[in-house]
Amino acid sequence: MPTEFEPVFVRLRSILRKHAGSLSVKHDTATAFCLEGGVHPTHKAPFPIAWVEIGKAYVSYHFMPIYANPKLLDGFSAKLNARMQGKSCFNFKTCDEDLFKELEQLTVKGFAAFKNAPFMREAKPQKA
Questions:
Q1: What are the residues facing 54 on neighbouring strands?
Q2: What would the pLDDT profile of 80-104 be if each residue is shown by its tens digit?
Q3: Which whole-number Å values give the CA distances from 44 to 41, 47, 89, 100, 122, in the listed order?
Q4: Which among 20, 32, 43, 59 is most buried, taking Cβ atoms within 10 Å?
């Protein structure tokens, strides 16, 4: 694990921890933090909603609400959008408090949107 990424990971994990609410912590290690919740409509099991992990070249912040609703990104800076990899992941190599503040705002919006989604309402996995 590249040690220079640890402060980035700690800061991004703190964003998710603040907004965990009723979600379950699936992983909480020195290199990965994952929140899951709701029941996947197809697989009938809880699924990851947001996670942060240290990779070889950067720290990744995965946030599924923007995968489900890309319009959540409307109004955010081009600088934050430039950090996107794929449809729901942001990569960071260093701490950037301005971007982290934007990411926290996006996280608040995204969790609020997901909270009202039908699959997030106190659903329980179905027994076989």
A1: 59
A2: 999 999 999 999 999 999 999 999 9
A3: 6, 9, 24, 33, 13
A4: 59
